[in-house]
Amino acid sequence: MYHRWLHMTFLHWRYPAEVVREVVPDALTVETFDGSAWVGLTPFLMTDVHMPGLPALPWLSSFPETNCRTYVRDPRGRSGIWFLSLDAGRLAAALGGRTGYWLPYHWSDMSVRADGGRRRYRCRRRWPGPQGTRCDAELEAGALLTGSDELAHFLTARYRLFTMVAGRLAAADVEHPAWPLQHTELISLDQDLLRAAGLPDPGDAPVLHASPGVDVRVGMWTW
Questions:
Q1: pTM score of the predicted model
Q2: Of these four, 91, 154, 157, 165, which has the most CB atoms within 10 Å of its CB?
Q3: Given this model, what pLDDT does residue 56 score?
Q4: Nearest to 123 by CA among 138, 139, 110
Q5: Element (H, E) at 71
């Protein structure tokens, strides 16, 4: 599948690795940075979704999405993303993600608004629930990050997805340019996606990054 991910914001929190271990399959190892596991919420606008050789359909190919994710390694030592949930603003996208990619997609009432550096995201889960699970955020994205930032690289430079297909661990490669990351200020946040994913509420403010977006190619699952 080909996608374009626009108006991306990364909100990340530290968690004890043993807490995250409880919501990750036994086949995967929780990956840590600076002694902690990290869990992220990533709201963005998905556009230009299409299969190779086929055009993007205007209505079906553009919708908001918010992912709840953490970082893991498989038994071969490969690093990647484990999704705790994915909320999509199109029912067809949620059904396709569940049936075609075996990912925990939810259909939600969502919006993404971008006005200059200001980003506003809204999410209310519809199906399969818990209904009303939410993620409303407002942020201000500023200047581009310059220089080396090891934590930002750990949290955003992710080029593999994992899932369980019929009880077997599967991986899909993700290709995209390096994220152009921006300094970001949090204005407001009201969310319970982390709690719905089986995690306690975070006890501190999130680490923030934003990006205008990148073009993405997601491969098929392999074992």
A1: 0.95
A2: 154
A3: 65
A4: 110
A5: strand 63-73
